[in-house]
Amino acid sequence: MKRLIATALSTLALLGMAATAMATDIAVKGSTTVQPIMQKAAEAFMAQNKGVSISISASGSGDGAKAMIDGSTPLAMMSREMKESEVKQAKDKGVNPKQIIIAYDCLTPVVHSSNPVKNLTMDQLKDIYTGKIKDWKDLGGNPGQIVVVSRDSSSGTFEYWNEHVLKKERVFAGALMQASNGAVSQTVAKNKYAIAYVGLAYTHAPGTKALSVDGVHGSVDNTLNGTYPISRGLYLYTNGEPSGDVAKLVNFILSETGQKIVASVDYVPVKAAKGAKKAKK
């Protein structure tokens, strides 16, 4: 009897070890802008694939690139393209970055919900963020010093804003640098003089209000029709052609179900964007 019990316990232990060995852990790292897509997609994917565990760490596109290069993630989330210097670092370490576009986004300026200003021009945004315009009264708002809130330099959102709005001029030295879209939204919600910029999925944060730019509201439709001036792609990067469960996850995000998740968090599905481009031709 003791032998039977011992044999049964050994069998159970082996089965448990086999199940553990078969389980897949995928650590996804990078952009806080891409995070809402990945969070919902991961939950849906894990519900369909019980043996897969996905952990998500969002601290900026730059950190995603670093994690891809050092091998600590098989899947980097980025709200900008990898830089030439990052690609070189990767290849020097035997990593071959493959870019996969999963959605489109538009960067949207946000202010405190009590701020009467509704629209800013691209030139005004540049002057605010370089410190040339310092008071809301100069923009048709209530008098008060503008509190400039920006993403930090590890963020792809920061880099895109710097290139397309600031035209690579330095951001105002007194800007409050924040590590995530969520932190940006919270800072603006607590300060009636603040202004910031976020991805489209974060424009509904309590206590904040989205502004139009050059008279055009940031939206899915205006991203698709090309009228909104600050639009961009959202990316995943893998080391070469993805395989196994990583490939399944990527394909899930690009599937009809995955692209519905993209739309549900207020980003623009890839197929919709491609269709709009063809229509414009």
Key traits:
alpha/beta; single chain; D-Maltodextrin-Binding Protein, domain 2; five-stranded mixed beta sheet; 281 residues
Number of domains: 2
Query: Largest beta sheet: what is the strand line-up?
Result: 2-1-3-12-4-13
Q: What separation lies between the terminal Cα atoms?
A: 79 Å
Proportion of helical residues: 40-55%
Set out the fold topology:
Blueprint: H1 2-22, E1 24-30, H2 35-48, E2 52-58, H3 61-70, E3 75-78, H4 84-92, E4 97-106, E5 108-112, E6 119-120, H5 122-129, E7 147-151, H6 156-164, E8 176-178, H7 181-189, E9 194-198, E10 208-210, E11 212-213, H8 220-224, E12 231-239, H9 244-254, H10 256-264, E13 268-269, H11 270-280
Parallel strand pairs: 1-2, 1-3, 6-11, 7-8, 7-9
Antiparallel strand pairs: 3-12, 4-12, 4-13, 5-9, 5-10
Describe this protein's structure.
With 281 residues, the protein is an alpha/beta fold. It is 41% helix and 23% strand. The strands form three sheets. It has a six-stranded mixed sheet with strand order 2-1-3-12-4-13. Helix 2 links the parallel strand 1 (24-30) and strand 2 (52-58). Helix 3 (61-70) runs parallel beside helix 4 (84-92). The radius of gyration is 22 Å and the shape is globular. It starts with a helix and ends with a helix.
